[in-house]
Amino acid sequence: MIDIHCHLLPAVDDGPETVEQAVEMAKRAASEGVTAIVVTPHAFHPQFETDELNIQNAVAKLQDVLRHEGIALDLYAGQEIRVFGDLVEALSLAGSRYVLVEFPSDSVPAYAEQLFFGLQTEGYTPVIAHPERNKEFALNPKRLMDFVSSGALSQITTGSLTGEFGQNVQDLAFTFLRNGLSHLIASDAHSTGRRTFYWDDAKDAVTKELGQDKWNTYVSNAEAILKDEFVFIDPPILPIKNWRGKWKK
User: Fold this and answer.
1) Residue 143 CB neighbour total at 10 angstroms
2) Which of 39, 124, 163, 226 is least surrounded, with the fewest CB atoms within 10 Å of its CB?
3) Is the dihedral of CA 66, 70, 71, 76 positive or negative?
């Protein structure tokens, strides 16, 4: 199983503070069936100074530590990129065509469509991180549908599927998956505490709600990212609410 979004580098952003903590995270991931992680430290985020970080070198050093510890986990370099006006120096996921982008939690910038168009013109495919935790997408799913209809993908967080961010986020996460607005699942893990991997629980939740075939599809989609292959998706459907204000299934 491939985890395409994880904050595993020590002492870089809001992930583990020490190498020892990073190793414990790696052990947890491996115990839940993860075989490879795309390490995605924050980039261009106002709270974290990561501009000078050599991600490739940092990932290689951590990989050496994991090998020394006997942890069978392959690491690849990436970034979780906070959107701003010009993503010229964006680092893609494992050197692929896919770029993981993050919006502010309460909004989607007006220039995002033009930004995505520019990325796609350069041959990249935007992957929107955790849309289920974005206030604007929650209020107006058509905004996400428009991005997906234009060629973007989106990624749900395992913890959202298990209810770690509350019932509303959990419901929205499944709504986005059910209606083809989200196509990937990743941990966005930061620690072995509350913001950990939740892969086992997420698998149980998804197979119970959507079926084993759907889970297999999400696993295959992550593998396609790592191999830089095309991710095939069904046309998205705009979610609607019933008279009680709940998302229809």
Assistant:
1) 16
2) 163
3) positive
Question: 179 pLDDT exceeds 80?
Answer: yes
The Cα 98–Cα 92 span in angstroms is 6
Which residue, 180, 63, 90, 173, is CA-closest to 129? 173
Task: At 129, give phi and psi (nearest 5°).
Answer: -75, 140
> Taking Cα atoms as reference points, which of 174, 64, 152 lies closest to residue 103?
152
- Rounded to whole angstroms, the Cα distance separating 176 from 155 reads 10
Q: For residue 13, is pLDDT > 80?
A: no
Predicted confidence (pLDDT) at residue 49 exceeds the cutoff of 80: no
Task: Calculate what percentage of the chain has a pLDDT beyond 70.
Answer: 94
Helix (H, G, I), strand (E, B) or coil at 43: strand
In contact, 93 and 99? CB cutoff 8 Å: yes
Sole residue written with tokens 């050197």: 95
Q: How far apart are the first and last CA of the chain?
A: 27
Residues 28 and 6 sit within 8 Å (Cβ to Cβ): no
Amino acid at site 120: Q
In the chain, the domains with their CATH numbers are 2-226 (3.20.20.140)
> Minimum mean pLDDT among 23-27, 79-83, 236-240: which range?
79-83
List all residues 6 or more positions away from 89 whose beta carbon is below 8 Å from its beta carbon: none
**pLDDT greater than 70 at residue 86:** no
Answer yes or no: are the C-beta atoms of 93 and 4 closer than 8 Å: yes
